[in-house]
Amino acid sequence: MTQTQVAAHLGASLARINALVNGRSYRHLHGIPRGTRTTNGGQRYGFTETPERRHWNEAKFWTRVDRSGGPNACWPWAGGKPDAYGHTAAGKGMTGSANAHVVAFTLAMGLPKAPDWALVLRHLCDNKPCCNPAHLKPGTIGENLADRWQAQREGRTGPRSVTDPVPPPPGGWCIVTGDLDELDRLARISEFHARVDSSGGPAACWPWRGEKSRNNFGYGQMAFDGQRVVPAHRIAYVIADGKTLADIKGQNILHKCPEAKHRNDCNNPAHLALGTQAENIADKLIHGTMPMGERHHMGQRFPDALVARMREKFWRPTGKRPTMTELALEAGTSVTVISRWLKGTSRPEAGGPLAPTG
C-alpha cells in the first residue's frame, strides 16, 4: 500500500503521512525517545554520505551566514526575517535541527548532532537571526525564558553587544569554507567511486552498484559537471583522464572489456577508450551488446512474436490478405512501421517471412 493510498484512506494529507512514516512526527512510535534529535544518518540516495559531500554541505551552509562583521559581531542568517530564527531544511538532515543557529553551533563545535531539546541555545546577543557560535550559550528552557523576561523588564528590543562570548573548542571553531563548485566536483567524484564496485582489482570490470539509478540502456547514471544525468562510464573516463564532460562532448566512450559479463556496465577507466559513433556501433555489433528488437527499450512494446505474426499474416495469408492499415490497427502502430516490418528494413531479427512464398 502506497503512502498516497494510505493518505486517501485516512483522509489525511500526503505530507502528514510521509512525516509519520519517516519518523518526523510521533517519533516515539519509532522507538525514538521524546526530545531526541535525529539526523538522516548520513544517507544520500541510499548510499552513505561521503566525507567530501559532508564537507560541501557544511560549506554551503556557511555561505548563508553573514560573517562580514568579524568574529565578535552578530552573524545573521541570510534570507531570513530580521526578528526571527533562521531556518534551513538541509540542516535538519545534517544535525537533526532546522534552526539555523542550532545548526551553526553544532557544526562549529564539531558535534555529530545538535543538542537534544532539553538543552536550548541562549542568544547572548538577543538577536534571533544570529548564528555566531560565540553568541550561543547552551542552557535550559528556564534560563532562556529568564533571558527574555530580563530583556523585557529592561526595555531592550534589539541586539546587544556580547561582553562574555562563548569560548571556542580546542583547535578553534570548525567552520568549513571553500569554492562550492570545486567542493561539489570532489563530492561527485567520491560519490561516483562509492557507487562503483571496484573490489575485483584494477584489471577487473567495475560494475555499477546503484540498481535504481540506471537509464533505459542499463548504464549507471548520476549528476556530474553541472549535468543532471550522465552515463557512469563517461564520468569514469573524465575522472581518470583529468578532463571535464565538455572535453569529450560529441565523442563516444567505447567499452574494451576482456570479458563480456559486465560489458556496457563496466566503469573501469582501463577498459574505456574514446571513439566515434560508427566505431561504437560496430563494436556493439561485434560483441552482441547492441540492444535490438525487443531488447531495445523502444522495442519492448512490440515483441518479436508480434512482428513475426504480422509478417506471416501478410506474406502467407490463409485467406484474404489483410491490408497494412488493418495490420497497423491490430498491432497498435502506424502503417509506416508495418511497412518497414514487412520489408525487413526494421526488426529483421524478429523472424517471419519477408517476401511471398511459392
Concise synopsis of the structure shown:
With 358 residues, the protein is mostly helical. It has helices at residues 3-10, 14-21, 51-63, 89-95, 100-109, 141-153, 180-194, 232-241, 277-287, 304-315, 324-331, 335-343; strands at 43-44, 47-48, 120-123, 136-139, 221-224, 227-231, 252-255, 272-275.
The percentage helix is 25-40%
What number of structural domains do the residues give? Answer: 4
Q: Span between N and C termini?
A: 58 Å
Main sheet attributes: strand count, strand direction, barrel closure: 2 strands, antiparallel
What is the SS-derived class? mainly alpha
Unreliable spans are none
Query: What would you report as the Rg, rounded to the nearest angstrom?
Result: 30 Å
What is the N-to-C succession of helices and strands? HHEEHHHEEHHEEHEEHHHH
Got a strand count?
Answer: 8
Question: What is the strand content?
Answer: 5-15%
Q: Mean pLDDT, nearest integer?
A: 87
Strand order of the largest sheet: 1-2
Morphology: elongated
* Total helical elements: 12
